[in-house]
Amino acid sequence: MKWWLIFCTFFILSCSDTPGVEEKQPAPLTVSQQNIDTVTSTALLYLFNLVNSANKAELKKKQNEIIVGGTKIGLKVKVEFDGQKQNDYIYAAGFEVEIKNSQSIKLTTGIIGSGPTRKVAQNACIQQWVTTFANPYAALINQAKTLSIAQLNIYHGSMGIKGTMENNNWLTGDDKMIKKIITPLIPLINSNENNIVPIDIKLIVHNSRVIDGECRIGNLVSFEILKKLKQLKWPTSSQKILFTQFYLIEKQHK
Prior knowledge:
- By secondary structure, the chain is of the alpha+beta class.
- It is built from six helices and twelve strands.
- A hairpin with a 2-residue loop joins strand 10 and strand 11.
């Protein structure tokens, strides 16, 4: 099942919308948006502000790229769904960041936004991309302090939970939760040829187990990751829960 179909299906079937943890919203843009009217350019501007806070970066709006030292960071947005589902407007898109220096790496995240209008849904999609991908990627570029496991630096976006579940469960968004999820995936991460490995997790959980979902590593769908995550004991819930989180894994240089 495609990632955006999982989201759309869950939006229709779910009867509540309770976040697991409070998510920090991106800071307001600090430069003029007068000539910025596309999802791509607006998202790129958010990323530029985050990267430029610790680096002397250059923004090339016509090329949709940022230049940091000898590295070019390009952004493309591919719309997957743009329309209404019941009473909500849904805007789902794949955000592809291409990093070009001595090698070329593409990091893709699927993001969905919803709202009463198309404009609100688009803006929600951008905001979600910032908290999901741009924040951890900027932290990686800026070499911020982060959790390390088995010579892997773990940068993660905001955890997303849609639905209600019992209190005192382990989906808390802390380091202990991250270790529980990432540790069984270490062999798969180490077998990936790239130094920066993206992992995108989208799961539907019910009765302490994963019943559906889509997981990706290195932009490719991974049934191995889904299988390993199904082996974990997930929190108990009275209804289906949608759990999402994106990780950027940086291999430490030996």
